[in-house]
Amino acid sequence: MTRIAGRFTRVEPRRRVRQLVLGLLSDLPRKNCWTIAEWAGQTTPDGMQHLLGRAKWDADQVRDDVREYVMEHLHDDQAVLVVDETGDVKKGTHTVGVQRQYTGTAGRIENAQVAVYLVYAGQRGHAAVDRELYVPRSWTADPDRCQAAGLGENTAFATKPELATRMITRFLDVGHHASWVAGDEVYGGNPKLRTALEERGTGYVLAVACSHEVTTGAGKFRADTLAKKVPKRAWQKLSAGPGAKGHRFYNWAVIDLPDPRAGSRQLLIRRNRSTGELAYYRCYSPASVPLTVLVRVAGSRWRVEEFFQSGKGLAALDEHQVRRYISWSRWVTLAMLAHAFLAVIRADEHTRPAPDALIPLTCNEIQRLFITLVVRPVHDAAHRLGWSVWRRRHQARSQASHYRRQATQAKIGSVKRAV
């Protein structure tokens, strides 16, 4: 918290942001301005809502602080930048960026808000270092709607690969280095993103669809067509990295792609040893690298899934109940900071030998110990009863407002019918 304290010119928001971050790390079943304010001992959620919506501070500057914190503690010369998006299912149409769209969170098309994240994955651990909200065309084509949600009326549409390029460029432009970038088919199928990485000399292993076409010395072929031509002796059994149940072994094959430009380009193919299911990757590196390196980078992509799971489960990354862009950016940035704290503590703990018959501390266990032993607040009955009264009063006002609106709409409808 000392690292970001300078972003807040007044002591009140500085203290409140600390309470909010601790609340994000708490064991509350649901985390929002109401529950965190009660947990922190405040009498109403007004202060927390002010911090997210109206207080003067720049979430992008705090995002930069989070990035520097992660780089200081998790730096790795062979780290991988992983890009991926996640969706938060929402109700209504007023939450910034929301529309009916596919989200992997639900596994289907839902009314959702989608954001793209950049995760730094090294040997010591992984944490998010940047985020961008995906704003669909249905929003950017409506300047009034954008302005009402806190977006600039000149907000331009950007695809998810364009958002990923923006974040990777921001990371590299401040002087940080990453040898590799990994991502799924959304990013691998985008030639502009691949070209941007090649121009900066950054290697990548990006998934592509089975229908993706590549050019070989014998002509242009679909990826799945080339996979059928791979001889049996070309497949190698290699681990994509450790998982919850041990190493994740697959069969791998690689096909060199001739190109007059500098650098080494390949099509990497992964085959599931049980089902035979195939996956395909476009690869680039400034210099030729062994197959084991490409496999390691491909396996690193799953670190972003681990971030989404722990970021949402431990730091409430997806529990923001806000509508405007400024509140969204502030909430997710502080959630990234909370998760990064857990990741850094975990990395430090893993440098020490664990006692016999114990695994090293996990982020989940660190969160439990930290909240239980260090910061669990204790409040008396009067505080709890006061919050009960506040909630019921707020709900009564909301209910009366709904009834008034319904009555007004009914009166307007009857007048129109009479006319």
Automatic annotation (TrEMBL):
Domain Transposase IS701-like DDE, residue spans: 7-215
Annotated TM spans: none
Coiled coil: none
InterPro entries tied to this protein: IS701-like, IS701-like_DDE_dom, RNaseH-like_sf
Top-level taxon of origin: Bacteria
SUPFAM superfamilies for this protein: Ribonuclease H-like
Name of the protein: IS701 family transposase
Source species: Streptomyces phaeolivaceus
